[in-house]
Amino acid sequence: MFFSAVLPLPTLRRAPLRLSSRGPQDGYSRDLFPHWITVSGECNTRETVLRRDGTDVTIDDNCYPTQGNWYSPYDGGRWDQASDVDIDHVVPLSNAWKSGAREWTTERRRQFANDLENPQLIAVTDNVNQEKGDKGPEDWKPPLESYYCTYSRMWIGVKSVYDLTVTSAEKSALEEMLGRC
Questions:
Q1: 64 with 36: CB under 8 angstroms?
Q2: Among 25, 94, 173, 174, which residue has the least CB neighbours within 10 Å?
Q3: Which InterPro entries has this protein been placed in (predicted)?
Q4: Per residue in 63-119, pLDDT tens?
Q5: End-to-end Cα distance, the chain
Q6: Best CA proximity match to 130, nearest among 170, 86, 80, 69
Q7: Hey, is 141 helix, strand or coil?
Q8: 151: which residues sit within 8 A by CB, 6+ positions away?
């Protein structure tokens, strides 16, 4: 099941976020964040999230979902093909890089890119995820305003857990979304 507003996720007042200007993109590559690693048997992180966030999901011998139903909380889309769904890193890998992850070990970046315990990975409509790209909340918000509260709390939670910085514009956008809770 996808993350919803009932989760006890932090707000800006409770999360110890550090303000800083955005760090450089220099040296960034997605390959520095080993992602979609095997996490259980034959299943990689992506397949695990598809199973977690879908309903009536059936998988093949290689753990790939052959059928199921997925709801995208970003836009309200409903899908019955795994190929129509992307797994979003709520805090994009490049945003994390510019917010402090460039100083991490490869193992720490691997943990971040495959985090199933914190609200970092979520199944969403593929083209909505592609539209978001590596944008932060100052440049992109979920199309469904009813998801602003949850999304902002997820973002804050991830930034807090990983001790990543936020910019002033990012903080203002988060405060605006939290104002709708």
A1: no
A2: 25
A3: GmrSD_C
A4: 999 999 999 999 999 999 999 999 999 999 999 999 999 999 999 999 999 999 999
A5: 21
A6: 86
A7: coil
A8: 74, 90, 137, 141, 142, 177
Tokens standing for 130?
């592609």
Quote the Cα angle for 114-45-61, to 5°: 165
Q: Which residues of 18-29 are buried (b: 16+ CB within 10 A; e: fewer)?
A: eeeeebeeeebe
Token pair 């052959």: residue: 66
Answer whether 4's CB lies under 8 Å from 149's CB: no
pTM of the prediction?
0.89
- Provide the residue type at 20 as one letter: S
Q: Is 45 helix (H, G, I), strand (E, B) or coil?
A: helix
3-state SS class at 102: helix
Strands 85-89 and 78-79: unpaired
